[in-house]
Amino acid sequence: MKKVLIVATKDCHQRHILKDRLQQIGAQCSVECVDDDPELIEKYGITNAPNIIVDGKVVFRGRPDQHLPSLEELKKMCNK
Question: What is the mean pLDDT of the chain?
Fold first, then answer.
């Protein structure tokens, strides 16, 4: 099973939406906040939130001008 991680800030409202969508496609995921673990910023090159990391690789980087991935896009990212 793929390890799926959402990396965001505590005030990122989109992390909850992403988590729900990932659960809808059957992906087990965890959420980590850069507020609690600032080393994540350097480790994954985080500049915005939210981010999706699958098996240690960043597959989505949220930006203010970008929509969240659809269920179909998430399936592809997670190989579901």
Answer: 94
